[in-house]
Amino acid sequence: MQKPLVCVTLRGRTVEEMCNDAPKAVKLGADLVEARLDLLWSTEEKTTPAKKSEEGEKESIEIIVNQLELDAIDVEDSIKAISSTIETPLLFTCRPQSQGGHYPGSEDDRISVLKAAIASKPDWIDLEVDIDPPKREELVKLAGNGTRVIASLHSLELVPSASEIAQDVMDAQEMGDLVKACFHTKDRKDALRIFESALQLKSSGANYSLMGLGPGGDWSRIHAPALDQELVFATTESGWHLAQQGKINASDLRTAWEVLEYS
């Protein structure tokens, strides 16, 4: 049983923070790292609610994400700095707000960012399947043979049926070297549909990566080797809260594979 590649999404909302997280990601077992360029247009602010918590309870912290203006970031300099600093195989992503990302500009502006990212010759580039076909074809052509393409699907709505998910993945096979599908799960029934779709895709010959964000979203990550998945996304973050978010620490992921004897 071949273990999937582990891609760690770099934490941070600045070039410096992402670059600083890369060595930690490698230490925890990353085969490649993902730089979310859209996060550069956001800042994080931690506040405590005005209402005090009950005595003996831990004081909760609320995280507020603020959006930056489009001209606040020098795209080419940022991409150059990330590419020249990070030695690990690199995936560039620039997610639009419509799919849970933070890029504030128009779609044409975002395409320009993706072109600049491809020009830096990363190992991987993430291109959503719903990009306007002619523009997407141009991006794939620019990527050439040197940069592998992830054809990604992201849904903020209800999780489809297992058969629908599997069909969407199969339909997108020709759009990249690997198809990534991610869904927001509200409960474990949603997560079970994702898992069932992975079982349907097993032994299909499809190159894919399925996951959820929310309860049970980590099931398909933990059992990825048994599901014939090619790539699994993880984080350098740690804590019990990750399970509720469907995420998993990269080191914990590899430990789980050893315990489950996925070798």
Describe the structure.
This protein has helices at 15-27, 75-85, 107-119, 133-143, 162-171, 188-201, 219-222, 241-245, 250-259, and strands at 5-9, 32-36, 42-47, 62-67, 90-93, 124-128, 148-155, 178-184, 208-213, 231-234. The chain has one domain (5-46, 62-259): Alpha-Beta Barrel (TIM Barrel), CATH 3.20.20. Helix content is 35%, strand content 21%. The mean pLDDT is 94. Helix 1 runs parallel beside helix 2 and helix 5 crosses helix 6 (188-201). The strands form two sheets. An eight-stranded parallel β-sheet has the order 9-8-7-6-5-2-1-10. A two-stranded antiparallel sheet has the order 3-4. It is of the alpha/beta class and 263 residues long. The radius of gyration is 18 Å and the shape is globular.
Give the beta-strand count: 10
Domain count, please report it.
Answer: 1
Which H/E pattern describes the elements?
A: EHEEEHEHEHEHEHEHEHH
CATH superfamily: Aldolase class I
Distance between the termini: 6 Å
| Largest pleated sheet | 8 strands, parallel
Number of helices: 9
Q: Describe the strand arrangement of the main beta sheet, using strand numbers.
A: 9-8-7-6-5-2-1-10
- Portion in strands: 15-25%
Query: Radius of gyration from the CA trace?
Result: 18 Å
CATH architecture: Alpha-Beta Barrel
Low-confidence stretches: none
CATH first level: which class? Alpha Beta
Please state the structural category: alpha/beta
Overall outline: globular
CATH topology, anyone? TIM Barrel
